[in-house]
From TrEMBL:
It comes from Hydrogenophaga luteola. It is found in: Cell membrane. It is a multi-pass membrane protein. Gene3D superfamilies: MetI-like. This is ABC transporter permease. PROSITE patterns: ABC_TM1 (PS50928). It comes from the Bacteria. Keywords: Cell membrane, Membrane, Transmembrane, Transmembrane helix, Transport.
Length: 553
């Protein structure tokens, strides 16, 4: 009997019915996410397995385009990331806290709604040798023809770096707005200023050492996007040879298996570059922290803040990009060096092909509506410790993941089909929606759910009747974000769609290679209008819900 008692004590207790139900809810909540993310894992093996042959690597390193493409990628991605962080850090240092910071914060959603490809097209029309800026200075310089300058598609990718830096600075500012909204940061700044440190010293010695580690993941996302961007590189980057991401895209879509294997090997190099730069940046940061662990405590007098801040020209660039796209879409004839079109016409819009708009609308709407319940059940019952896995598509180069998706679709087979194309978008829409909802979800008052359960509601019923209606505004914002993310997808649409589905993004990038500027401007402008309509509809529904339901304002 004693031996049997010892054996029973050594066995773990059987899970209770409540524990089994909780585990079942966790698995059911993780099931939609597993359907979206799971096939990518074997897809990575199928896509990258051809690169395991040593002859593939020899062919890659002996390719004449390889060294220049690698150099252009490092220059454009590195300078773009540094410029974006420098602009965001400079604006935060100069403007926070104050009325100008709040005014800039109100303008950010408009700038963030401009997709990358549309911004690249608008910047092309702005800084090209025959662009709007050259036309503006022509009366002063007396040009009769566009200057023979290489302001876009330069060999080093400097114009691409400029576009990346400007566009990503708005994203980093949006992240800083969320971080600086916390009361702890404001209190630390008040204490430092009361000790006699000026604004620059306060940021350098108190705030940035706390904020930069929290910006690690957003900065990794910026670097990963710069390394693997294709749509902006096609518009603004060099073509002979192109950037490494464009070169990989060309190899992966080549019908020759040897070229596809070379593209898989180059994808691994791209992923290795990202990891190498990320580890080097982290090591450099730790070295700087150790070196500046004991500041000297010297105070410097405060300077008068400038009335003309850096944010004014930064936002003027964004407004000018939208304005020049609108003018080109309405232009009848517009020859250099005229600053404005000779005549305006709606002919481009009347003759526009509306099929890409329909494809974009149904694809983006279906992707967001499918990802919303997946995001809600994941945040409510899913294993939160695996959130980092969900965020991987945002912080690693996209080309290996897109190639993995395509390899998985080939095995089904579902490439070139509407369900396959829709599934390819879910991998990118879901992380952004979860990222938008996770903050309001964590700030939700759990006592409301406890009260609902005490009144007899099931866990799902409490969510349907209490929690999710209360979080209606963040849910609508997540829908708008997911819609805009789907509209901007280029590589998943090309690979999974097999060239059979045209969206406004794919059309804009295709036309940038030499198509009609008016049609190109119209397609790029539609890229901006569609996300703006999504955000506007979300705002209207939020106001309507706020008027009808007290407490949701």
């Amino acid at each position: 009997m004693a031996q049997a008692l010892r054996g029973s004590l050594s066995q773990p207790p059987a899970p209770s019915g409540r524990q089994r139900r909780r585990q079942a809810r966790v698995w059911l909540a993780a099931l939609p996410t597993l359907v979206i993310v799971g096939p990518v894992l074997p897809g990575l093996y199928w896509a990258l397995a051809p690169s395991l042959d040593l002859s593939v690597w020899r062919a890659l390193w002996s390719d004449a385009q390889w060294p220049l493409a690698l150099r252009t990628t490092l220059v454009s991605a590195g300078l773009g990331s540094v410029l974006g962080m420098a602009l965001a850090a400079g604006l935060a240092t100069m403007l926070y806290p104050g009325s100008r910071w709040l005014a800039m914060q109100r303008r950010l959603p408009l700038m963030l709604s401009v997709p990358h490809a549309a911004f690249a097209v608008g910047l092309l029309f702005l800084i090209a040798p025959s662009g709007w800026l050259a036309r503006a200075v022509t009366p002063l310089l007396g040009w009769g023809d566009p200057p023979a300058w290489t302001t876009v598609q330069d060999p080093l990718g400097l114009s691409l770096a400029l576009a990346l830096g400007l566009k990503e600075s708005w994203f980093l500012l949006w992240v800083l707005v969320a971080v600086l909204g916390e009361q702890t940061v404001h209190r630390h700044m008040v204490v430092a200023r009361s000790l006699g440190y000026n604004r620059a010293q306060t940021w350098q010695r108190v705030l940035w050492p706390q904020l930069l580690p929290r910006l690690g993941w957003p900065l990794a996302a910026v670097l990963a996007y710069g390394l693997s961007v294709v749509d902006m590189a096609v518009v603004l980057g060099p073509s002979t040879p192109p950037t490494l991401a464009v070169l990989i895209w060309q190899w992966l879509t080549d019908p020759d298996p040897a070229m596809q294997a070379r593209g898989a090997a180059a994808s691994l190099v791209l992923l290795g570059l990202f990891l190498l730069i990320a580890v080097g940046a982290r090591w450099t940061w730790h070295g700087l922290v150790r070196r500046a662990a004991y500041p000297d405590g010297a105070r410097q007098p405060a300077s008068n803040p400038s009335r003309w801040g850096l944010h004014q020209p930064l936002f003027l660039v964004g407004y000018a990009v939208v304005a020049v796209l609108l003018l080109w879409s309405l232009a009848d004839t517009w020859f250099f060096p005229a600053l404005l079109p000779d005549a305006l016409s709606l002919q481009t819009w009347v003759q526009a092909d509306w099929a890409p708009i329909g494809t974009t609308l149904w694809l983006a709407a279906a992707a967001t509506l499918l990802c919303l319940p997946a995001a809600l059940v994941w945040l409510e019952w899913g294993p939160q410790r695996y959130n980092a896995v969900l965020y991987l598509p945002l912080i690693i180069p996209s080309l290996p993941l897109v190639a993995a998706q395509y390899a998985a679709l080939l095995r089904v087979p579902a490439d070139g089909t509407a369900p396959g194309l829709l599934w390819s978008h879910l991998l990118w829409v879901l992380p952004y929606m979860v990222l938008t909802l996770i903050g309001p979800y964590r700030a939700f008052d759990r006592r409301l759910m406890t009260t609902a359960r005490a009144l007899g509601q099931t866990p799902l019923g409490a969510c349907l009747r209490v929690k999710w209606p209360t979080l209606l505004k963040p849910i609508l914002a997540a829908l708008a974000v997911g819609f805009s993310v789907s509209v901007a997808q280029y590589l998943p649409t090309l690979f999974a769609g097999g060239g059979r589905f045209a969206t406004v993004t794919t059309e804009a990038v295709a036309l940038s290679a030499g198509g009609n500027r008016r049609v190109l401007a119209a397609q790029a402008l539609l890229q901006i209008v569609l996300p703006l309509l999504g955000f506007g509809l979300a705002a209207l529904l939020s106001q309507w819900a706020g008027r009808r339901r007290q407490g949701l304002r």
